[in-house]
Amino acid sequence: MAKFDDTRSYYRATAHAAPSHPRLEGEHKADVAILGAGYTGLSAALELAEAGYSVIVVEAETVGFGASGRNGGQVCSGFNKSMHHVEKVVGSEGAKVAWEIADGAPKLVGERIKKYGIDCDLKWGYLHAAEKKSQFEGLKEDQAEWEKWGYTGSKLYEGSAVREKIGTDRYVGALWEPGAGHVHPLNYCLGLGKAAHEAGAQIFENSRAIRLDTGDKPAIHTEHGSVHAEHLILAGNAYLRETEPYLFRRLMPVGSYIVATEPLGDNRAKTLLPTDDAVSNCNFIVDYYRLSADKRMLFGGRATYSGLEPNDLGGFVRPRMLHVFPELDDVKIDHVWGGYIGITVDRMPHVGRIGSRTYFSQGYSGHGLALSNMCGKILAEAIKGQTQKFDIMHKFKHPIFPGGRFRTPLLTLGMFWYRLKDALA
Ligand SMILES: Cc1cc2nc3c(=O)[nH]c(=O)nc-3n(C[C@H](O)[C@H](O)[C@H](O)COP(=O)(O)OP(=O)(O)OC[C@H]3O[C@@H](n4cnc5c(N)ncnc54)[C@H](O)[C@@H]3O)c2cc1C
């Protein structure tokens, strides 16, 4: 599987200085050992370290190397599924807790940015854009459902009114919400790492776990050392792969790609996104875009299911950007990069436990910036003995992807069908 070099990423090029951490060497002990320094792992580390637990985070590369340092920066609210679906699985009382989780996730990101003074260009305001009438009807239903759950302040735009928000004729309607937005995801992750470290968590970088003990005596083993702990948290998500077969079978790594244009200047940027919101469309294979702090268009979309990186990443994504904003044809692409999104069969996060001491959370299915922060916190709470939210998330059962070793070609075929549906419906 391609590793997806992130050296051409706009985020790497504009990352704030952050402390580097040593390689794990020799034998170590901690109350909690955490695999992975993305949002899930660092969120759990921060909560546990602040509660007085000794915590060691073991990261194969560097803080924010995975999806957390590469994503679209869209701080989405909710799950990737409707509350109607959630209620069917966890019942009406459980759904109240699930709503607290979904609604609380972007708020948690906002609170942490404020509390720890993380400099990461946070902006609130998010648009769901419909290319088709049927999608706009779906957005109206979403709005009605959110209002039922007490979410206020969202607004529908129809026809030419959409242009107040997005400078294109591509959409028939849009739903704006105030409680979601966008950040510089890598700078947020580095800030979260710094906060966890300052709270007392030890972080080891360039320390790939090659073996895990998930029984009564949990441990993470790397080439040069080991961490033995009372509890283990697995937060490797789409990058963990076969290191933990139980999780691997229930997760599909999907490649997603982003381009950053050259800076557009304030005036031109304003004609495209006048109110500087984050946008995603309603297709199965989603376009997601926003402006960066220095007024570049950051446009993400397309997807690969083969584990292989396309040769010409810019050429792969740019047509999607021009589909929405044809006038950007003359604009230079300065940065291109990609990363792996972990998706589950039913697109709900997979939160659970292996045995009695190993906790995990993965598979936010493209909706993970805020949710991974919340789920990391939920794992920390479960270890502290507060299991209400963990128990609700644990109720979502996650089947393995069908197809065994043929699952990738099967999924590729399935996705071709959805692409066709996006184009034709
Ligand atoms: C291109 C792209 C765009 C996206 N856009 C959005 C978006 O706009 N909004 C949104 O909500 N979500 C988005 N997502 C998803 C979101 O980024 C993820 O859901 C979230 O970052 C997951 O965080 P995580 O900590 O669980 O995993 P990751 O950030 O992937 O962290 C896992 C970490 O574990 C480490 N690791 C793995 N295996 C080992 C091992 N054996 N030993 C030690 N360490 C290991 C990895 O190196 C990595 O640093 C996007 C993802 C991608 C790739």
Structural overview:
The structure is a single chain. With 425 residues, this protein is an alpha/beta fold. It has a domain at 124-179 and 253-343: D-Amino Acid Oxidase, Chain A, domain 2 (2-Layer Sandwich). It is 34% helix and 25% strand. The chain has 11 helices and 17 strands. The chain has helices at residues 10-13, 39-50, 83-115, 133-148, 185-198, 245-248, 266-272, 313-324, 368-384, 388-394, 407-424; strands at 26-35, 55-58, 74-75, 123-130, 155-158, 173-182, 202-204, 209-213, 219-222, 225-234, 252-261, 278-281, 288-291, 297-304, 333-343, 350-354, 358-362. The strands form 2 sheets. Strands 3, 4, 5, 6, 11, 12, 13, 14 and 15 form a 9-stranded mixed beta sheet that branches. Strands 1, 2, 7, 8, 9, 10, 16 and 17 form an 8-stranded mixed beta sheet that branches. A hairpin with a 3-residue loop joins strand 16 and strand 17 (358-362). Helix 2 runs parallel beside helix 5, helix 2 packs parallel to helix 9 and helix 3 (83-115) packs across helix 9 (368-384). The longest helix has 33 residues, at 83-115. The chain is globular, with a radius of gyration of 21 Å. The two termini are 33 Å apart.
